[in-house]
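ok, trying the design again with the full structure, not the truncated one.
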């Protein structure tokens, strides 16, 4: 992928993340991307814009790393993307959820929901990256 494709992949990933967070929040009955009240005060009235900026950064970083690791993954373009998304999820969830559960008074179902939600999100993003390579090669 060229630099243009990395940027395009990051933009599409940011849009997908924002949409996924909204849908997941609707499905569980709360907006899961909403920060705590003190954090909302710190970020001001435009906290949702900060969420979009964070999604853009995540999308660009994952898109950049897909250009490095994606070609080394075997399979069709879509399958490569799914494997990449699963790999990122596996690396990201090895230590964080167990440490969070052990050190913060959060219910198990909430942390489990975050783990499953991040799996879905990263599989979708990986598939998007895989399709971009398929379209642009």
């Amino acid at each position: 992928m060229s630099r243009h494709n990395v940027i395009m992949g990051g933009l599409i990933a940011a849009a997908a993340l924002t949409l996924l967070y909204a849908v997941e929040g609707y499905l569980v009955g709360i907006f899961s991307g909403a920060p705590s009240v003190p954090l909302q005060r710190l970020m001001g009235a435009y906290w949702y814009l900060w969420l979009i900026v964070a999604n853009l950064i995540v999308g660009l970083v994952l898109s950049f790393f897909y250009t490095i690791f994606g070609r080394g993954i075997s399979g069709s373009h879509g399958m490569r993307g799914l494997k990449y998304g699963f790999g990122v999820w596996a690396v990201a969830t090895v230590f964080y959820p167990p440490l969070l559960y052990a050190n913060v008074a959060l219910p198990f179902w909430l942390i489990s929901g975050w783990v499953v939600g991040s799996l879905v999100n990263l599989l979708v993003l990986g598939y998007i990256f895989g399709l971009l390579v398929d379209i642009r090669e």
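Keeping the full-length input from now on. The mean pLDDT is 79.
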